[in-house]
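Schema walkthrough. Field components (list of strings):
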Amino acid sequence: MSRSAVTPVVLGMLWHGPLSGYDIKRAVERSTAFFWRASYGQLYPELKRLAADGLVSATDGSSGDRPRRVYALTEPGRSALAAWLREERTTVQLRDENLLRLFFADALPRAQALGVLRDRRDGHAERLAVLQQIAKGAGADPDFAALPLRWGLAFHEWGRRWCDDELQRLTP
Amino acid sequence: MSRSAVTPVVLGMLWHGPLSGYDIKRAVERSTAFFWRASYGQLYPELKRLAADGLVSATDGSSGDRPRRVYALTEPGRSALAAWLREERTTVQLRDENLLRLFFADALPRAQALGVLRDRRDGHAERLAVLQQIAKGAGADPDFAALPLRWGLAFHEWGRRWCDDELQRLTP
DNA sequence: TAGTGCATGTAATGCGTTACATGATTTC
DNA sequence: GAAATCATGTAACGCATTACATGCACTA
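Field assembly_structure (string):
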């Protein structure tokens, strides 16, 4: 029962109740996409596999001629989710092109190099605005489910401030 | 002249002077690896391609029987680097398994869910220690080249504090 | 009736890592 | 003389995205 990157998302999203592959995809876009994504190309095959392994059960939810396959967590599925939640790995993978630019920015005239830092600050500001929009629309999540969004908001605020501080420091 | 993810690293690393593929790999491990990585499987083919495109020039630096190919930036290579540095894209890609765990942690008994947050804090603390070690050994970088490390230090400090604050908030 | 959203799925593609092959030189 | 480091390179693999194919149902 080896797991891929989508496995936990699928199991987790089914925790609150049965969903279709399409539903899961939508839920991911609304919530985890900015730190954990999932594409149809992963989702549908994975659901099949999990059903074959007995971690989820599939029932037909078609209405009329429109096909719809609804998946639910089974008991083994619940256990698998809980087991994964208790793992202690804390893998953070970061890929940040602007940071790479900053690293090489000494190759630019100073004014332009400072522009790279300003771009960074603006990037944080933009993303912050997006998350604030999302936060407005979001209902009252349970305690822990609310944390990633809170984290995102705090992170971009911090990042913006970091840029401002460095800009201050680097401009006489 | 389409560029892949390694292109800018290669050009940037050659800015200060000629290097071999092996040298570049080592430089990446020491400096950019935590936000931008590069493997031999990318590096060597890319160096060939860049040489074919005239962005770098290859000279033989073999000593005795040990082969060594040393690459240097050409004028077009310098321009290409500068052009990339002036781009304004600010793509930050994040993949954070612990954040995903937090998102689903309501499925755990509260005590264990808080453990997920504590794991996160410990992860930040560990990485912070690693970067502090690196910072000790690092010489005086030029202004901008020093920024990514400064960022890393500040980020993990912030992240640790964020966890502490949330732990406080969630424990009565 | 045209457009949008619901819904499932796969094939092709691209990208990056891992693993391996090979061998020289330096250091302990 | 063993181990570590220098050094180049490629093939296989795994993983994720993109793009496409297909069609129903609702709504403006």
